[in-house]
Design goal:
- The complex is a heterodimer of chains A (about 325) and B (about 290).
- Chain A has one domain (about 75-310): MetI-like fold, CATH 1.10.3720.
- Chain A is about 70% helix and about 0% strand.
- Chain A has helices spanning about 1-50, 70-75, 80-110, 115-125, 135-145, 150-160, 180-205, 205-215, 220-250, 250-255, 270-280, 285-310.
- The radius of gyration of chain A is 27 Å and the shape is flat.
- The model of chain A has no long low-confidence stretch (mean pLDDT about 85).
- By secondary structure, chain B is mainly α.
- Chain B contains 14 helices and no strands.
- Chain B has helices at about 1-40, 45-50, 65-70, 75-105, 110-125, 125-130, 130-140, 150-155, 160-170, 175-185, 190-215, 220-225, 235-240, 250-280.
- Chain B folds into 2 domains: about 1-40; about 65-285, MetI-like (MetI-like fold).
- The relative contact order of chain B is 0.13.
- The chains are: A mainly alpha (about 325), B mainly alpha (about 290).
- At the A-B interface, helix 1, helix 3, helix 4, helix 5 and helix 6 of A face helix 1, helix 4, helix 5, helix 6 and helix 7 of B.
């Protein structure tokens, strides 16, 4: 009897051991990804959250002190924070409609191209801007808008004669035109890539559906409104939410185009955070951390609302 | 009467097709013209470049040779970019293939939580918020102002999306196929290598291209974590260069620009067939 129980236990513990080995082996597959994901994303976000409760200043010799919610209380009444959020929101409002509607239109047109070679050709060109890294796009357009050599002002002044060299629009350097200028090239950048998203969605719509609607007498407009658009809604929802997120958190473009002039419309909450953390005074990273987190929380609030609006309704 | 109506219908349809191609080609021009302009700028003679005129009176093809020979930090910056990008792409692809495979075909607890975290990180402004702490980590590891140090944070830039892409690619690989390979005596490593990888090849192309584009052009971390021109990557150098005289005259930085932008476009042109297949197989379904 006693031996039987012990054998049983041996088998059980052996089974447990093998099971543990399997589990460990399976987790081994995820360890490389988790190492980087936790080390350089999860931990930094939590660490910054912790810093936002201290008065940590990078260049100061004093050890950081715990200040509770002081930073948050100060950021919430900081007019620069509100200006920063409002500026980012203005940019988002300029950018978001264009980057959804134009690619949708383009995708519907390209989707109807029946000539196989031509269709492939169009698709390749559509994706060219998407394989140009962001910074190279910003640099290219920084030159395009340049006062001295840029073709945009050259066309406006010399070719079309809409302006004189004195009145030619000043696109860069934090004028009222800088945010629209950034929005224009951001739309250019996403044009092909987003059109590809919509093309994938359009390819999934059964052709019989639109044929049936046509036979029932629907015109192109009604077809678009009642058949195509509802089918594209999931893709559109993802694009709107993702692009809202990237537009509110734009930072590279503003660093390259606007610098750290506080009056510039490009001085958004992200630039304010960067300025505080790495440029001004003693590098008040505790305060900057609170700026970052409040910006993120404000964004997440809108994302939640957007996800609710676009929730699947079946 | 009937015949006339049919002709008008055909004519209108034909007009529609022509209009469609006109509009599409307009958009294609909008996409291509800025690139054509900078290409043209890189072969303009100096006076033509500064006159702003679109078509040069005199071409000058010596700028490419000039920038390689005369700007002494440039070859180093180019090498830095190649080194950092290659390392980032290899490491991220490795992580994403293993991770994506495990999330579909291996037994794990907390799978859904992991997928949720990867997804959530796409919506959270991670890049901006984590910057302060990444600076701190790099300083702690003595990696500030080093080229190699950039690789670590670069890997995470597209890690979540890469894992999710590979996950949706591996979801297309039938479970029965995996079970069959297991019955034939394959462990998970072998069934990934023998069964999974060949079927996931197009998805891997997508992951490689996505990561190449990000690492090749990264600016924010590159500018924040390095100080000296000699350790910097090309995008940081290009972003701070503005056309003056001498080394950094406009056509010359345009030549640098073309040197930096071309490899990506050529690689994409070669891989585009696989890339599109990968996109259609599920990379867009993330």
């Amino acid at each position: 009897m006693a031996t039987l129980t012990s054998t049983n236990q041996a088998i059980k513990s052996r089974f447990r051991l093998t099971h543990l080995r399997y589990t460990l082996r399976n987790w081994l597959f995820l360890i490389p990804a988790l190492f980087f994901f936790i080390g350089y994303q999860i931990y930094p976000i939590l660490r910054v959250f912790w810093l936002s409760f201290t008065d940590y200043r990078y260049l100061s010799q004093d050890p950081p002190r715990w200040v509770g919610l002081d930073n948050f209380a100060n950021v919430i009444v900081d007019p620069l924070m509100w200006d920063g959020l409002w500026r980012a929101a203005q940019f988002t409002l300029m950018f978001l409609p264009g980057t959804i509607i134009l690619p949708l239109l383009l995708a519907i047109l390209v989707d109807r191209v029946t000539h196989q070679r031509l269709a492939t050709f169009y698709r390749v060109i559509l994706l060219i801007p998407a394989v140009i890294p962001g910074t190279l796009v910003f640099v290219l357009w920084k030159w395009m808008y340049n006062f001295q050599i840029g073709p945009i002002n050259y066309i406006l002044v010399e070719v079309l004669g809409l302006f004189t060299p004195q009145t030619a629009p000043q696109w860069l350097g934090g004028t009222a035109l800088t945010l629209p200028a950034v929005a224009i090239f951001e739309v250019w950048w996403g044009l092909g890539y987003h059109a590809m998203f919509f093309l994938a969605g359009l390819a999934a719509i059964p052709k019989e559906l639109s044929e049936a609607a046509r036979i029932d007498g629907a015109n192109e407009w009604r077809l678009f409104w009642h058949v195509t658009l509802p089918r594209l809604q999931p893709i559109m929802a993802i694009l709107v939410v993702l692009r809202f997120g990237s537009a509110m958190a734009v930072i590279d473009e503003y660093l390259i185009f606007g610098g750290f002039n506080r009056a510039s419309p490009t001085y958004t909450w992200t630039i304010y955070m960067y300025d505080m953390a790495f440029k001004i005074g003693q590098w008040q990273q505790g305060y900057a951390a609170a700026i970052g987190w409040i910006g993120a929380i404000a964004m997440m609030g809108v994302v939640a609302i957007l996800l609710y609006i676009f929730r699947p309704r079946d | 009467m009937q015949a006339a109506a049919v002709t008008t219908y055909r004519r209108r349809k034909r007009l529609g097709v022509i209009m469609r191609h006109v509009v599409i080609n307009f958009f294609m021009l909008v996409i291509l013209l800025p690139l054509a302009w900078v290409l043209l700028l890189s072969v303009k003679s100096l006076p033509d470049a500064y006159s702003g005129a679109l078509w040069p009176q005199q071409f000058d093809f010596t700028h490419y040779n000039y920038v390689i020979q005369k700007i002494d930090t440039l070859p180093t910056n180019l090498f830095n970019s190649i080194y950092v990008t290659a390392a980032t792409v290899i490491i991220t692809t490795f992580c994403a293939v293993l991770g994506g495979f495990a999330l579909v075909h291996l037994e794990l607890s907390w799978k859904n939580l992991l997928v949720f975290l990867f997804l959530a990180s796409l919506y959270f402004p991670t890049r901006v918020v984590s910057l302060i702490s990444i600076f701190e980590i790099q300083r702690y590891l003595n990696l500030i102002n080093t080229t190699s140090g950039l690789i670590l944070p670069y890997v995470t830039l597209n890690l979540a999306i890469s894992v999710l892409i590979m996950r949706s690619i591996f979801e297309q690989v039938p479970k029965e196929l995996m079970d069959a390979s297991r019955i034939d005596g394959c462990g998970p490593w072998k069934s990934l290598w023998v069964v999974g990888l060949p079927l996931a090849a197009n998805g891997i192309v997508v992951v490689i291209i996505v990561n190449f584009v990000t690492a090749w052009g990264e600016f924010l971390l590159g500018a924040t974590l390095t100080n000296d021109q000699i350790v910097r990557t090309m995008p940081v150098v290009l972003a701070s260069a503005s056309g003056g005289m001498g080394q950094w005259a406009w056509p010359r930085i345009a030549a640098v620009y073309i040197i930096v932008v071309t490899p990506g476009i050529i690689a994409f042109a070669f891989a585009q067939r696989l890339f599109f297949k990968g996109l259609m197989e599920g990379a867009l379904k993330v």
